[in-house]
Design goal:
The complex is a heterodimer of chains A (about 400) and B (about 350). With about 400 residues, chain A is mostly beta strands. Chain A has a domain at about 55-165 and about 390-410. Chain A is built from three helices and 28 strands. Chain A has helices spanning about 1-40, 55-65, 345-350, and strands spanning about 85, 90-95, 105-110, 115-120, 125, 135-140, 145-150, 160-165, 180, 185-190, 200-205, 210-215, 220-225, 230-235, 240-245, 255-260, 265-275, 275-280, 285-290, 295-300, 310, 320, 330-335, 360-365, 370-375, 385-390, 395-400, 405-410. In chain A, strands 1-28-27-26 form a four-stranded antiparallel beta sheet. In chain A, strands 2-3-4-5 form a four-stranded antiparallel beta sheet, covered by helices on one side. A four-stranded antiparallel beta sheet of chain A has the order 6-7-8-9, with no helix packed on it. With about 350 residues, chain B is mainly beta. Chain B has three domains: about 5-120, Immunoglobulin-like, CATH 2.60.40; about 125-230, Immunoglobulin-like (Sandwich); about 235-335, Immunoglobulin-like (Sandwich). In chain B, the strands form six sheets. Chain B has a five-stranded antiparallel beta sheet. The longest helix of chain B is centred in the first third of the chain and has 26 residues, at about 5-30. The radius of gyration of chain B is 32 Å and the shape is elongated. Classes of the chains: A mainly beta (about 400), B mainly beta (about 350). The interface between A and B is large, with 52 and 46 residues.
């Protein structure tokens, strides 16, 4: 009897200990689970994905900015602001597509590689593609609508993809897949012919570097220029003029050339310190900047005329040419820093270490006359890569501070 | 042979030698002149190798003629532009590329033609391009500048155009490359349009020049550039999981990071490397003074988790090279994360 009682107490003790152990195990797991959940939340787990929804998170960002006055002089209650932020997220690249009457801004989101179209008049937004291409660092948009997306793979190799919408989106409201053709790896710099038919890019070669001209999908590659140095910026105008500009640095001599059909490089600008260049895509005119302690901007109407110093201090990277007109002067629009940038501005600007606060000026290149076009009151914009639509009504540009895309209506 | 004959021969030889020594200087100025004994006359251009449409200062030189007292007649392409006593300098605008401007100078003394000289302005273009093989990140729009231990690539781009409009092939041009005035061994010769040479030494500045001369010696030019060595520059960027490295937003001395955990990438601009994670580069990260072990695959990157932490993390980074002892760069950044509640802590 006594042995039975002892056994019963031992069993009860075992049960209690087991229950206590299980309780301890439960609490331990729960605590660890909470810790993991906190960590995952910190790493972004559980947040809404940038894809999956019909439009994606960018849609919300863009809509919120287009339906909200960002800054500007709203002339009446129904007129949109002259200056609007199209997207809040970083934009890899953008351009105007369509004709003057049907123009729209086509943009490529940096985080996802999704392509969007924005109507600059109504502000309506349409997502064009649903093909996820994360971390798209750079994108080119041709007038035809074709896009080129550039990014880095896991080995930090520069990967370039030429993309085209799988089907026409003129009638469909749903995003379509982006057909992709991968071009050569490690392309240094490139540009697309405005009609989207060809690409030109700089790649390393045994002799230093080479300029390659190819069909838009990378086929039919042909050497168009032999180079020793590989650091070039490329401008391909509507007049089929292909211009190479040496990568710039403050107080360092730079040159720019036109690539002729036979591969000869014809000088456009020679030996300018801190050279930046904005060639007119419609004529031989150019704007070029000098960065040598201070910024200077010059205009030249054609190859034979003497350059004219303009009374605005900025870099040509902040300028865009208005469409060609049958009569009247050649006009360009330049964003000009409101305060004098530091002496080593160009180097630091390219490294993302310094930003400017710009206002827009209109430049009549023939006469050298400039006038203030638009000054944002409180919004800080550091303009880069400005482009103008075919109708000459809008300037789209990226804010170098956060790579967000902005739109300025030229007329009041 | 008499003594006087020997003496006369010696004097003639000395004069001839003097004229021979004078000749190269005049030929550099692309001038041709008619010399008689005792009547040397040369024409000098400034600049020595005019570019198209450039204003050229042309000066007469003589060691035996009293030019200020003589009457000088200048004829350019058959037209008299100046005639007068002591008119030893004129200015002429060079023609376009491929043009040839004839300059004829005639010197009169006491109304009698004493001598004359002729030269041609054949404007040419010669560009000297360069960049270093130092590191710059993908999509960087700036020039790759040289730092100690890096290599320079230089290219001469001549445009020597004949009167008939044809361009002289670079294979018919002799290039002579110099560093600080001294010929760079093994780099010069016919068609040698490009060179790859060591960059300037630490804190040094080199003057690199290239002389280009057509094989018929009618066309010639010189281009030079001063290239200074720069120190590698460390910049720190946030590496966003969605957007990638934010090359457009270099972190400053003080930064507010709107996340609990964030990754950062250091970019060693202009360093002697082809990749920021090259095994040749040595990174030493410190957070609040404590050295942090490097990520083996990505030593240029660091991830900071500030969960449950507060305050500002002082991040410092020192960069050196495994064999290039002149490579040294450092940077420091203050990073304040939102969301922390206790003193800053890190986990890597």
């Amino acid at each position: 009897m006594k042995a039975y009682s002892t056994l019963r107490y031992v069993l009860i003790a075992l049960v209690v200990l087991s229950l206590a152990g299980l309780l301890w195990w439960y609490l331990l797991l729960k605590q660890r689970g909470e810790a993991i959940e906190v960590g995952n939340t910190g790493r972004g787990a559980g947040l809404s994905q940038p894809f999956g929804a019909p439009t994606g998170s960018t849609y919300e960002n863009i809509i919120s900015s287009l339906t909200t006055l960002v800054v500007g002089d709203q002339t009446n209650g129904n007129s949109p602001s002259r200056l609007a932020q199209i997207g809040k997220t970083p934009t890899a690249g953008f351009g105007f597509v369509g004709s003057a009457s049907t123009t729209r801004v086509r943009l490529v989101e940096r985080g996802t590689g999704y392509v969007f179209d924005v109507d600059p008049v109504s502000g309506s937004l349409k997502r064009v593609t649903n093909t996820l291409i994360p971390r798209t660092y750079e994108a080119l948009v041709a007038n035809s609508g074709r896009v080129v997306l550039r990014g880095l793979n896991e080995q930090d190799v520069v990967v370039t993809i030429a993309g085209e919408m799988m089907t026409s989106t003129s009638t469909s409201q749903n995003p379509v897949a982006l057909s992709q053709k991968q071009l050569s790896n490690n392309i240094r710099s490139m540009d697309v012919r405005p009609d989207g038919g060809e690409v030109f890019y700089i790649a390393d070669s045994s002799i230093g570097a080479v300029g390659i001209r190819a069909a838009w999908d990378g086929s039919k590659e042909a050497t168009a220029a032999s180079l020793t140095t590989s650091g070039w910026q490329i401008h391909w105008g509507s007049n089929d003029r292909l211009v190479l500009v040496q990568n710039a640095a403050d107080n360092v001599s730079g040159n720019a050339y036109s690539v002729e059909a036979d591969g000869v490089l014809t000088p456009i600008v020679r030996g300018v310190l801190g050279l930046t260049l904005a060639p007119d895509p419609h004529s031989p005119a150019i704007l070029y900047g000098q960065s040598a302690g201070t910024l200077s901007l010059f205009a030249r109407i054609d190859d034979s005329s003497a350059p004219v110093a303009l009374p605005i201090r900025t870099v040509a990277d902040k300028c865009a040419w208005a469409p060609a007109q049958t009569d009247g002067p050649r006009v360009a629009y330049c964003a000009v820093p409101q305060t004098a940038p530091p002496a080593d501005f160009l180097d630091r600007w390219y490294r993302g270490e310094v930003h400017t606060r710009d206002v827009w000026w209109r430049v009549e290149v023939n006469t050298g006359v400039v006038e203030l076009l638009y000054s944002p009151d409180s919004t800080i914009i550091d303009v880069e890569d400005p482009v103008i639509d075919a109708g000459g009504n809008y300037i789209a540009f990226r804010n170098a501070i956060d790579k967000s895309l902005w739109l300025l209506r030229i007329s009041k | 042979m008499s003594v006087s004959s020997v003496r006369s021969f010696g004097i003639l030889a000395l004069i001839s030698l003097t004229l021979l020594l004078c000749a190269p200087s005049a030929s550099r100025a692309q001038s041709q002149f008619d010399l008689g004994f005792g009547t040397d006359l040369s024409i000098e251009f400034s600049p020595e190798h005019p570019a198209p449409k450039e204003v050229v200062r042309i000066q007469a030189r003589s060691t035996t003629i009293d030019l200020p007292g003589a009457v000088l007649l200048w004829v350019v392409d058959g037209e008299t532009i100046t005639e007068g006593a002591g008119a030893d300098t004129v200015t002429v605008t060079a023609g376009p590329l491929g043009s040839e401007t004839s300059i004829v100078l005639t010197v009169f003394e006491n109304g009698v033609e004493r001598t004359s000289a002729q030269a041609y302005i054949r404007p040419v273009e010669l560009d000297l391009l360069w960049e270093a093989d130092s590191y710059t990140p993908p999509f960087f729009r700036g020039r790759a500048l040289p730092s100690a231990g890096t290599t320079l690539r230089l290219e001469a781009r001549p445009r020597f155009q004949r009167v008939d409009g044809s361009l002289i092939s670079t294979g018919d041009i002799i290039f002579t490359w110099r560093r600080n005035g001294y010929v760079i061994p093994g780099t010069s010769g016919r068609g040698k349009t490009s060179v790859v040479i060591e960059g300037p030494s630490l804190f040094g500045t080199d003057t690199i020049s290239v002389e280009a001369k057509s094989t018929d010696e009618l066309y010639e030019s010189v281009a030079s550039t001063r290239i200074a060595s720069t120190e590698p520059h460390l910049a720190l960027y946030q590496n966003h999981p969605v957007f990638g490295i934010a090359y457009h937003q270099a972190l400053g001395a003080e930064n507010r990071i709107s996340e609990t955990e964030a990754s950062f990438s250091a970019v060693p601009y202009f360093a002697d490397a082809h990749h920021p994670d090259s095994g040749d580069l040595l990174y030493e990260w410190r957070v609040n003074g404590t050295q942090i072990g490097n990520n083996a695959q990505r030593p240029s990157a660091i991830t900071i988790n500030a969960a449950g932490s507060a305050g500002t993390a002082s991040v410092t980074l020192a960069l050196t090279h495994i064999s290039n002892f002149f490579l040294s760069a450092s940077g420091s950044w203050g990073l304040a994360f939102f969301g922390g509640v206790t003193p800053f802590d890190t986990s890597f």
